[in-house]
Amino acid sequence: MLKSARKQEKDPEGRMPLAAHLRELRNRLLKSVLAITVVTAVAMWQYEAIAHFVTGPVIDSVGCPKAPSGPRTHPCAQVVANGLLAPFTIMLKVSLTTGVVISTPVWLYQLWAFLAPGLHRHEKKYALGFVGAGVPLFLGGAYLAYAVLPTTAGALVGLTPSDWANFFPADEFFDIVTRMVLVFGLAFELPLLLVLLNFGGVLTGSRILSWWRFMVLGITVFAALATPTGDPLTMGLLAAPIVVLYFGAVGICLFNDRRRKLGNPDAELSDDEASELDLTPTEVSEIEPVASGRMLPEQASGEAGEGDARRRGGYDDFT
Q1: What is the pLDDT of residue 30?
Q2: Average pLDDT across the chain, whole number
């Protein structure tokens, strides 16, 4: 059994030494990997049905008919397994992708559990909200990738000359599917990450809003790199929802900052600015007489040596 480092080091403020943080990270990663492995093993038993579910819309969109009645009027393609080990590799890829998607609630909760100690005690109640919002966002991004896949395949196959045959190597095809599903799903988690940083006091809503030009440009560039085709339609289908979610996250962060400011007027100030200092001037009391210092014996008797010839009142002439 994995013992949580946080149970061994109990601190009301959530402080932990570096070694305990590393043990905690290890435990959270192992739990997430274990959940993904279990779901992946279960998905292997139904991998053929899952493979047909993934390739079905693409084959319906660009697949060649099994019994063509006449000459082809548009390019089409067929999915083929190229190589002896290709079916086994495809099974692993399909099952692993299914494991990552289905186990989303588990590894999202482990992520939150690792970051939660950085929040205040009254903010940890948002754990269920974080997981509850993260799962639909990831699944929504994955479904969007699945929905635009036929359009993406149609745009790519449309570039094939009419007198050529087009074959989709299954392993390459599932590489594209896996990348799009994971990239779209993780991209939809960006607004949730911004909200998490705001709730943790790392970023303010006004600071996040000031980045909106760079964020929109970055999202557009990211959509262009993430989509295999790079056509405006597919880029827009990915970039537009993320931009909308980004501004939605900014609204939540601004609302949270306003709520904090109402509860604590010094919430946005630094520690030095928020500290209470009494700068009221006080009256100066009466001047008290100070007694003169005791004289040396030779000064009291009026005698002075050659080395003390330059002394006057106990001080050197140089001073």
Answers
A1: 92
A2: 75
pLDDT at 1 over 50: no
2 neighbors 9 (Cβ within 8 angstroms): no
Cβ atoms within 10 Å, residue 64: 14
Residue-level length of the chain: 319
Q: How far is 161 from 156, CA to CA, in rounded Å?
A: 11
Q: Name the phi and psi angles at 281, rounded to 5.
A: -70, 145
Q: How far is it, in rounded angstroms, from Cα 203 to Cα 215?
A: 15
Return d(Cα 221, Cα 287) in angstroms, integer. 73
pLDDT at position 39 is 92
The rounded distance, in Å, linking the Cα atoms of 188 and 180 is: 12
Angstrom distances, CA of residue 237 to CA of 115, 153, 213, 224, 253: 31, 15, 19, 11, 25
Question: How many helices and strands, by DSSP H and E, does the chain display?
Answer: 13, 2
Instruction: Name 304's Cβ contacts closer than 8 Å, sequence gap at least 6.
Output: 298, 311
Sequence-separated (6 or more) residues with CB below 8 Å from residue 229: 152, 155, 156
Distance CA 83, CA 169 (A): 9
Question: Tokens for 179?
Answer: 């990348």
CA distance 250 to 233: 26
For 262, the token pair is: 């109402």
| CA 34 to the chain's CA centroid | 22
Q: How many whole angstroms separate alpha carbon 167 and alpha carbon 293?
A: 105
Quick one: what percent of the chain has pLDDT higher than 90?
7
Q: In whole angstroms, give the CA distance from residue 200 to residue 123.
A: 8
- pLDDT tens sequence across 126-158: 666 777 788 888 888 888 888 888 877 777 777
In whole angstroms, what is the distance from residue 219 CA to residue 141 CA? 14
Residue 297 has pLDDT above 90, yes or no: no
